[in-house]
Write a structure and sequence with these properties.
alpha+beta, extended, 525 residues, 8 strands
Length: 525
């Protein structure tokens, strides 16, 4: 921390872009907006924003920003107040300023000014009201206009109960600044550390991955030759998921892979990996988990071929054995041969012939099948998203997100929009009966930003159930209607359900391109 300069240009540029997701204290959407408007250039700006961004003082932020950027004149109610308000562009921001100004303007003692700070901070209105006459009278004795003093006191009353003391805000801002410095200078490493810290919160992981994308940092799934236990950064500056993030991956296997790779270099191919790994740390479950999570993709073999029968069993009756099973047999044979060679007089492992199993061709998995298997092992879609090809359709046609629907969401907020359009992929369907014995169902839908559940009852369920199949991508048009005249709860009644591929096909057919033939045309070839 002692080596971090307080006037670092890259750090202030990060603040000016509002790119503060993941940094301490200032990552909210509101704070990002204000930082972009403020364009902070000195540490004092950060301290002030930290103190102002709370109820009460927040009302002064627009004026603070305009004054900082020369869009509003910096004025002082009384000229002598510039001594204590210059750094905050004429706006009272801190408790210390209230204390100093009460002594400067009205002759308060140090004890009285501290008592005023405490009373305002703890909302003790009776004490504050009792001190007001002393402030007005003291200010008048010093030659100040009573009306101006009334205005100053009113400003203090409105915000001081929420105000920070400057020392507190400065400490918070310094910690925040250090995190911003790290993000500005070591972006991939910083984001990898955050992803590791929040690895158990899929919503946070998704948010941080979106931030990485906006920063131009690629985030890839686990890789046998690049991943560590947790999130890490490879030599290209890309972030890799850790091996420990794979469900079913044992700690012993993770540790053994990293230790072997660190000691003897990257694994050259699949068989080099099998031969170098300790037999005690490698088993069928670990192998299958790594395959489905994409950790072995670097070896160039399609994932489906690992789970298909190996070449030498295609013509036998033992077709239930997979290529992974054959690799485990090979690992055991190779290990036995290595032990035998060590105990042999000649010790020539190369002279012992051990047949390496070969994979066979297998039916290629669909994109959704590959992604779903990947997601089961890592928790999120990594190499792609099943809705990627429909992103334009979803962004243009939908006015709500999947996360906005559900039991807690069916309130007045949704009623503000008469027609609701929702799109996503069906990830789960539950069927059942109501207490009355009528059919019902619950459909789990997921889009790029989250998950929601849509409940359907009676005839509505019977009408639309055929459209909801796991893996199908749909777009749903609904009407929001009050359940009862006096109710704050609303029902979402489905008007139509369409498959996204059909919507996309129709959209392409109906595209119209308008060109002004009188305008100058550039060469598009």
């Amino acid at each position: 921390a002692s080596k971090i300069p307080i006037d670092d240009e890259l750090t202030y540029e990060l603040y000016q872009r509002g790119q503060t997701v993941g940094t301490f204290q200032v990552e909210s959407a509101g704070m990002q907006k204000y930082l972009r408007q403020l364009h902070p250039t000195v540490f004092e700006d950060l301290i002030a924003m930290n103190a102002l961004y709370r109820p009460g003082p927040m009302d002064y932020i627009p004026s603070f920003i305009r004054r900082k950027n020369g869009q509003e004149p910096i004025t002082y109610d009384i000229p002598c107040m510039e001594k204590y308000l210059k750094d905050t562009y004429g706006i009272t921001v801190y408790q210390e300023q209230v204390m100093l100004l009460s002594r400067q303007l009205a002759g308060f003692t140090r004890g009285e000014s501290d008592a005023l700070r405490k009373a305002m901070g703890k909302k003790k209105k009776d004490i504050v009201d009792a001190m007001k006459p002393k402030f007005i009278e003291g200010g008048k004795r010093n030659g100040h206009n009573p009306a101006t003093l009334e205005k100053i006191w009113g400003d203090w009353e409105r915000f001081a109960s929420y105000a920070f003391n400057k020392s507190h805000a400065a400490c918070y801002s310094w910690v925040a600044y250090q995190t911003a410095y790290l993000k500005a200078h070591y972006p991939a490493e910083f984001m990898a550390a955050l992803l590791t810290r929040r690895c158990n919160d899929i919503k946070e992981i998704t948010k941080l991955m979106d931030e990485c994308k906006s920063m131009g940092i690629s985030v890839y799934g686990p890789d046998i030759n690049e991943s560590y236990a947790n999130f890490g950064v490879n030599q290209k500056g890309e972030i890799r998921f850790g091996l420990a993030a794979i469900k079913g991956m044992s700690e012993a296997a993770t540790r053994a892979i990293i230790e072997e790779r660190s000691k003897n270099g990257p694994f050259k191919d699949l068989y080099d990996f099998i031969e170098r790994m300790p037999i005690s740390s490698l088993n069928k479950k670990v192998m299958e988990c790594m395959v489905l999570a994409g950790a072995l993709d670097a070896f160039g073999l399609p994932r489906e071929q690992y789970l298909a029968p190996p070449m030498h069993l295609l013509s036998s009756n033992n077709r239930s054995a997979s290529f992974v099973d054959a690799l485990m047999v090979y690992a055991q044979q190779y290990n036995n041969a290595k032990l035998e060679a060590q105990n042999s007089l000649f010790g020539d492992l190369d002279a012992m012939e051990i047949t390496k199993p070969k994979p066979s061709k297998a039916p290629e998995w669909s994109t959704i099948e590959r992604l779903n298997r990947e997601r089961e092992l890592v928790g999120i879609y990594l190499s792609a998203h099943p809705l990627d090809e429909y992103s334009v359709i979803l962004n243009c046609l939908c006015n709500i997100k999947c996360s906005e629907i559900g039991r807690d969401a069916e309130k007045a907020e949704l009623a503000k929009r008469d027609t609701l359009v929702l799109g996503g992929i069906v990830t789960n369907v539950r069927e059942g009966l109501t207490k009355k014995g009528t059919p019902m169902g619950a459909v789990t839908l997921e889009d790029f930003e989250g998950v929601g559940e849509l409940a359907l009852f009676d005839e509505e369920w019977s009408k639309w159930v055929g459209k909801f199949r796991i893996g199908c991508s749909v777009i749903i048009k609904m009407k929001s209607q009050k359940r009862y005249a006096s109710s704050d709860f609303y029902s979402l009644n489905i008007q139509s359900v369409e498959f996204l591929n059909e919507v996309a096909d129709n959209a392409v057919k109906n595209i119209t391109v308008s060109i002004d033939i009188n305008a100058e045309m550039e060469d598009f070839t």
